[in-house]
Amino acid sequence: MIGRDLKTMLFVPASRPERIPKAIASDAGAVIVDLEDAVPAAAKDSARDSLDAFLRGHDGALIFVRINARGTAGFEADLALCARHANVVGIMLPKAESAEDVRVVAGAGKSIIPLIESARGLVALNEIAAVPEVERLSYGGLDLSDDLGLEVNTGAAEMVMDQCRYQLLVSSRAAGLLAPIDTVFPVFDDEEAVLSRARRARNMGFGGMLCIHPQQIAPVQAGFSPDPDQVEWARKVMEVARSGGGAFKVDGQMVDAPVIAMARTILERAEWGFDK
């Protein structure tokens, strides 16, 4: 079980195992040790060995691992590494393009976050989401943009990516998964920009964001947390709702069953994170 409060998932290269304890000690909701993009091809074997040694020496360190994609040279060895360590609580599978890709990874006995990074993955999204070991979906924005032939950092590209986000959101909801995780945001030294990006993803129904730097953790957590005025409104609604009756008004707004459900969700998000 991956868990609810994953507003921030921080990447750490497997080739830098000394950074893993620092990442775990941070306020990140989860740490993803990366054996894929963050590690050069020539260093993958040594990075895997370093991660193996770290896991053997730190039984209490609970981490996710982003393995190499199915069909690549490191896939089988990465999967075996994850399978033999109980402190690997989940696997992030890059370039997931079919339910079969995910089912093969499920043999390791871990929860899975598939990364959608191609048109093939988008087309197979409902089948991927239906695999029982999948608890969340995410996507790789740059790889997906490249596969779709988008010109990144343009308004047109962002419109297309929003359609991809919509597909992840709907497929997650239909499959009963926790809210999807938004892709990485390359800016980490502009807190307001990170906060704005996180809040936008939250408003689109996402539950968290992949982070590439510890400086992103605080603004992302703030962006995915309900605003104080929302929480106060929700508390008012629930207080009146507990008294019974049908429709009523709170702060001049008519309140009925769907609005009560929204208020309940806001309070749950305030307590547990944005997971519904």
From TrEMBL:
Coiled-coil spans are none
Write out the GO MF terms.
Answer: lyase activity
The protein's name is: HpcH/HpaI aldolase/citrate lyase family protein
Stored SUPFAM superfamilies: Phosphoenolpyruvate/pyruvate domain
Q: Which cofactor does it need?
A: Mg(2+)
PANTHER family found in the cross-reference section: CITRATE LYASE SUBUNIT BETA (PTHR32308:SF10), LYASE BETA SUBUNIT, PUTATIVE (AFU_ORTHOLOGUE AFUA_4G13030)-RELATED (PTHR32308)
| Keyword Magnesium tagged | yes
Domain of life of the organism in this record? Bacteria
Sorted alphabetically, the keyword list is: Lyase, Magnesium, Metal-binding
Name the lineage. Answer: Bacteria, Pseudomonadati, Pseudomonadota, Gammaproteobacteria, Pseudomonadales
Question: What range(s) does the HpcH/HpaI aldolase/citrate lyase domain occupy?
Answer: 7-214
